[in-house]
Amino acid sequence: MTLYTRIPVPDYVAFDIETTGLVPEEDHIIEVGLVRFKNGEPVERWTSLVKPEGKVGLKTLRLTGIPLEELEASVGIFDICREIEEFRGDLPLVGHNPEFDVAFLAKVIPNFPGVAVYDTLELARIVYPGFATYRLSDLTQNLNIVLDDAHRACDDAEASGILFRHIQERIVSMPAHLRDKIVGIMGDSWAAGHLFKHDSNAECYQPSLFPSEYVTPFELGGSGEVPDMDLLSSEAEGNWFQEILGQNSKLIYLDTHIDCDIIEEVVKGCVEVSENGPRIIVAGEFRNCPDIEQGECHLYHPREYLCVLRSTKSYELARHGFLADLDIDLRRFLSSVAVWETLTEDGYFGEIQVVGRSRELQRELSCTEIPDCLDYCPLKEDCYYLRAVRTSESCSTILTPLNVCFDPPVHADIAVIFGIDDVLNAWEARQPRLDLGKLANALNEAGYSDCAQQAENISKECLNVSGGRADSIMPQEFLDSLNCLQQDLGKIVDELRSSLRVETESFIEVPMDPPIMSSVLHSLEHWRDEIIKISSDDVPGLTIISKGYSFGNQVTAVLSKKTVWPASYLKDRLFEVYRNVVFVSPQISFINRYQGLRKLYGIDEDSLILKIPDRSRVASCNNSQVLLVCVDSGRFLSGRDHVEFVGGFLEKLMTNIPENVLCLCPSYSFARDLNDAVAPKLEDSSIAVFAQGIDGGPRILEHLMEPDTLVLLRFGVSIADPDKIGPRILAIPRIPFSPPSIVYDLRREDLNRMGVDGFLEASVLPVALSLRSYIETIVRSTGRLAVIFLDPKVLPGQRGWGKDFMGTFDDMSKVVCLPDEAVARVAQWLKA
Question: Taking the C-alpha atoms of 757, 759, 764 and 766 in order, what is their torsion angle to the nearest 10 degrees?
């Protein structure tokens, strides 16, 4: 046995429980596992199943793998409480997110836990800042810890106990100044603080930063045949990208599906073209292509880089007690950043997990004041962002996120942009937006209730103008009220800044705001700047009033600048920066067929459209492998009746066909109602239902890798890894149109004046475009797919747009039939 005598806590008991749910007041324990550790090694295990006091759901049984008959034959929870207490004795406890386990055990064991409890989830986030997720199964895999049976109590307990030993070894090997820094951030009352104060004679070493394995969804797509489209030579096996740039066109739309092979080909072509010529910026999302991510010159937005000066001053403020009121989750994140800073070479926040309120802290620690800070910063030679800019200046091809390509800090001649829809969204995200409810909350938090009331009054006036509509154009007379609010905000910002700088002048020797302490100040400053942009004629667009929700679900007004045809402004900006622009997208073929979509995406008569033919090594999308089934209920249904019909059909489908189903719901509320309608019945047939918003976020897609599963997902969520989890049945209960808005109305009016159907081209076709992309993403991986439409409006003889909508899928097989026949057709299709 190895003796881990250097670790602060060598003897402890790791524990874990399995339950019927997440709520201690409603759910019950079904398994308890304890593992005693001596000198950091597991020496004894104890486990027991627990007879459930209520029904055990199918998802719980599937997650744990515990047979129901074994649970029903086991003992009650109160029969094993004494054994639990005797086994653990007075040793400290260790668990992964043990607050959950403690809450359940405290219901049945008086004065539980009564000893120190160490949280490996909290500690792992601090000492291993480079991991993408901190689930126990992922941590054990990354640290080579054996976990034989995840979600069984004793195996999970042992894994968390071994993880605790790893964490302690890492802590004692940290430099003393880093451990002191973490204790200073977390505070003296932190239960785990003594682990970092442990005096070890071990020689410190510099551990490696664990790389993130998170894969960002990247949509694939197909390309239909389009008249008048130029086709690149299929014999162009050399640098076909050089052939593209040789077309002598300022704006090129390149039609091809997008995957890592295509991205790598384009980047390679850019490098070859730019070696002795123009500098090229390639903009897009590359985190799912590890070869690209690791091997090229990257440049991110300044706010994605850690500011060395801000982080240094934050630790000083924490050490002197200025951050004592900071939320525990934010202190934990700041501690994680302190460790990460000793490991990172690039200072790019994408290397670590930043979720929830941690994003607030990231903004306080990032390079948001570039370039104004250069006048006073004593650490600018160590600035991660400036270092990245200097590196980029020596590169001929630079990879950036989409939000950097509009204002690159280095000169470039050509921009190659992946994802025409994504770049349009990134452009619109730059437009000013003022949430009056959040502004009022920030003012109240800072103690300026009069100004908060002023913001609330403007919000009420705006909502009165909107009435029952989803949004409306803000009247010009509101500008005076906004300008008064902006002036008052300016005075408050100056007052807060002066007060904070005086309070911290002995620690902040340069003219900068004290980081983290100034978060409210910076929030108010942001809202002030948004008011200035909204009121300015220099920012094009209409000022739109829409509805938002503040704390307590109170309806508030949100003001934003929006343009009817944003692509024209996007193109103008790109041509101010670059000589040539190339858009790469799988959707060009479809867009080019319709006048409204061409206008929406900025394709005009001067645009050159090229198509890359599928290479033999690239899997093509064969739409003949897709069957569209329109299910006729026999009568028109709406509201609750429609939900019941969809639920009944899905029950019939899944009990007759041994295939998993992905159901794309138009909203969270629809998914919730459908889950209530179908889950109990399907669970009785041993089919599990997972609904987004109830059972988790988009990661519920992973359950499609399990048999007998129905996943209810909100439309628009991408499938991160279709090769692993691509379903062969896709159900569409209702066509998910965007909600009505002023901008959509104005687009429709413009298109009607152009002589085309405005509703069809502004509302129907964008949905069809998104759905085609989704279908083609799946069928590239599954090879065969059945898509079931359960919306009666797409049936023949119903709404006029239904025929046009289905007409966009003319390259796919289609049938219309009653529910029973639909199930039989799908079964036959998938067997063929």
Answer: 90
Does residue 689 share a domain with residue 628? Answer: yes
Q: Which residues are within 8 A (CB) of 153 and not within 5 positions of it... i.e. 6 or more apart?
A: 16, 17, 18, 31, 32, 33, 47
Q: How far apart are CA 788 and CA 297, in angstroms?
A: 44
| pLDDT attached to residue 226 | 38
What is the rounded average pLDDT of the residues 574-587? Answer: 91
Please count the CA atoms within 13 angstroms of the CA of 730 that sit on its side-chain side. Answer: 27
| d(C-alpha 734, C-alpha 127), whole Å | 47
Q: Which two tokens stand for residue 533?
A: 């942009």
Question: Tell me: the pLDDT tens digits for 354-365?
Answer: 988 899 999 999
Q: What is the DSSP string of 162-223?
A: HHHHHHHHHHHTS-HHHHHHHHHHH-TT-TTHHHHH----PPP--PPPPPP-----------
CA distances in angstroms from 276 to 273, 298, 606, 680, listed in the order given: 7, 20, 28, 66
Could you list the residue range(s) of the whole structural domain that residue 202 is in?
Answer: 175-212+306-382
Rounded CA-CA distance 353/407 in Å is 26
Question: In the prediction, which pLDDT does 236 show?
Answer: 43
Phi and psi angles of residue 813, each rounded to the nearest 5 degrees, phi first: -70, 140
Q: β-strands 251-255, 580-585: how paired?
A: parallel
C-alpha span between 149 and 146 (Å, rounded): 9
Q: Which amino acid is at 573?
A: R
Q: Which of 351, 382, 413 finishes a domain?
A: 382
Question: Using 50, 70 and 90 to split pLDDT, how confident is the model at 222?
Answer: very low
| 181 in the same domain as 45 | no
Q: Which of 377-381, 450-454, 794-798 has the lowest mean pLDDT?
A: 794-798
What's the pTM?
0.88
> Is the same domain home to 501 and 629?
no
pLDDT-wise least confident of 76-85, 221-230, 359-368: 221-230
